[in-house]
């Protein structure tokens, strides 16, 4: 039976913690390195619903994309939802491990899985290559097998991503032909300039704000598609689970993985303005 230390070693060989941004907090959050690990649940967010799912399934470890604590804390008392989560996990011998910006820039990483989910085929290259290794980096650029109108690409992207209350928001001429596509899982504001410079037909990401998006479109930039943050990162979970399973198997270690299907996007419902047409 592998230990948590064995599994962490495998995860860190796939998603090197040195690749993480300096402000990030990745790695093991709680768990005893000598504990045995058989069942591993992959999820985007370290939230109560995911912890419940882990307990129901009998998981020994949760691997999440988002960190539980990003800044220093002086208390894990169960007086906050984060402290309560730490208590729940420790009491039930469940570890928590985070691969965040180190998974974003990995090759393959979060945006490779997103690119495939929305129908990009062929080679993918980073939208913003890492300084130390241009094969890695943030976002990906790829192509569709043949051009399709923006509205059709958005429909296919919606089909390829897990469903969320908000769906996709699209900015640009619905008939615009789309062939070259840039994608970036999670908040993509900071990559708008790179998407414009790359000359792609559309940039699909999440958490875009009005002013940057409006100015981008007014200035003739690529079309924009804004998806739910959770949905853009979720496709990576299956890829990470698969890579961990095969890397472990190569070392004679057997682990059982599962991808959480609990939708933990913050936006869980919408209301339409009926007068707005
Ligand atoms: Zn994210």
From TrEMBL:
Keywords: Metal-binding. It holds the Pfam family DUF34_NIF3. InterPro entries: DUF34/NIF3 (IPR002678), DUF34/NIF3_sf (IPR036069). NCBIfam families: YbgI_SA1388. PANTHER family: GTP CYCLOHYDROLASE 1 TYPE 2 HOMOLOG, NGG1 INTERACTING FACTOR 3. Belongs to the GTP cyclohydrolase I type 2/NIF3 family. Homohexamer. This is GTP cyclohydrolase 1 type 2 homolog. It comes from Streptosporangium fragile.
């Amino acid at each position: 039976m592998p230990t948590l230390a064995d599994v962490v070693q495998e995860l860190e060989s796939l998603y090197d913690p040195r690749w993480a941004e300096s402000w990030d907090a990745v790695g093991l959050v709680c768990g005893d390195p000598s504990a045995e690990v058989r069942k591993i649940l992959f999820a985007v967010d370290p939230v109560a619903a995911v912890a419940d799912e882990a307990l129901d399934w009998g998981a020994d470890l949760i691997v999440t994309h988002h960190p539980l604590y990003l800044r220093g804390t002086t208390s894990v008392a169960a007086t906050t939802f984060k402290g309560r989560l730490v208590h729940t996990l420790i009491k039930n011998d469940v570890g928590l491990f985070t691969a965040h910006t180190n998974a974003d820039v990995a090759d393959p990483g979060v945006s490779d899985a997103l690119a495939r989910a929305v129908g990009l085929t062929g080679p993918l290259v980073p939208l913003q290559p890492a300084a130390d290794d241009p094969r890695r980096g943030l976002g990906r650029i790829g192509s569709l097998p043949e051009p399709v109108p923006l509205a059709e690409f958005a429909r296919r992207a919606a089909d390829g991503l897990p469903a969320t209350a908000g769906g996709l928001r699209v900015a640009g001429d619905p008939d615009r032909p789309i062939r070259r596509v840039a994608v970036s899982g999670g908040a993509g504001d900071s990559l708008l300039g790179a998407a414009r410079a790359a000359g792609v037909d559309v940039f699909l990401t999440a958490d875009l704000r009005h002013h940057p998006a409006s100015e981008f479109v007014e200035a003739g930039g690529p079309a924009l598609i804004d998806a739910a943050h959770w949905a853009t990162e979720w496709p990576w979970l299956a890829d990470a689970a698969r890579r961990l399973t095969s890397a472990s198997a190569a070392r004679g270690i057997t682990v059982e993985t599962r991808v959480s299907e609990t939708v933990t996007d913050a936006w869980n419902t919408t209301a339409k303005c009926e007068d707005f047409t």
